[in-house]
Design goal:
- This protein has 5 helices and 5 strands.
- It has helices at about 10-20, 45-60, 60-65, 135-150, 160-180, and strands spanning about 70-75, 80-85, 95-105, 110-120, 120-130.
- The strands form 2 sheets. Strands 3-4-5 form a 3-stranded antiparallel sheet, sandwiched between helices. A two-stranded antiparallel sheet has the order 1-2.
- Strand 3 and strand 4 (about 110-120) form a beta hairpin.
- The model has no long low-confidence stretch (mean pLDDT about 90).
């Protein structure tokens, strides 16, 4: 879309706001495309879930991308070879998790949007306001477990140590990929 609007940031933000209006959302407004704090930028947990579901249902590339644990971009005319890692700690730890989004800003704290499918049941969690990323992930696990338990699906235990191990694994992956470059 950036090429179609010639990289015009304001047009992109206007298009974002137009889309949410078409979705019938009245408690969301975008002031920038990156999600950084801005008094004019706001949303609700419910509306973030609507936006997420819409994106996953209507843009297959997004649904594919959010599942990726890590990826190597080969060198091309636009950039050198580089690696990325999905920093969503729950991918590969909590069963069926698709890491839709993680983030942090001063005003919203640590946040996440995850989708998990277990035994044919899909649960989406939108969490905002955690004090740190470990709390964010552990609170998300508690919410997933609670929702799945209501569907008769057994809890899955995730510990702080499992999350720390995942962070260490990311570091190794990034270090190895840097060495390859």
């Amino acid at each position: 879309i950036g090429q179609k609007i010639e990289g015009d940031r304001k047009i992109f933000i206007d298009l974002m706001n137009e889309k949410i209006k078409r979705l019938g959302l009245t408690n969301t407004n975008f002031a920038n495309p990156s999600g950084i704090d801005d008094i004019r930028q706001f949303s609700t947990v419910r509306e973030l879930s609507v936006i997420t579901q819409y994106a996953l249902n209507n843009y297959p590339d997004i649904a594919k991308i959010v599942k990726i644990k890590d990826y190597i971009f080969t060198k091309n005319n636009y950039h050198e070879k580089y690696s990325i890692v999905n920093w969503n700690s729950l991918i590969g730890i909590y069963p069926g998790v698709v890491g839709v989004k993680i983030g942090h800003t001063e005003s919203s704290g640590h946040s996440t949007i995850v989708l998990s499918e277990r035994e044919g049941e899909k649960i989406m969690i939108v969490l905002i306001g955690a004090p740190d990323r470990r709390a964010r992930d552990l609170w998300t696990v508690d919410l997933l477990n609670s929702a799945f338990e209501q569907k008769g699906i057994k809890k899955f235990k995730v510990t702080r140590d499992m999350l720390i191990k995942r962070s260490y694994e990311w570091s190794l992956v990034l270090y190895e990929k840097m060495e390859e470059n």
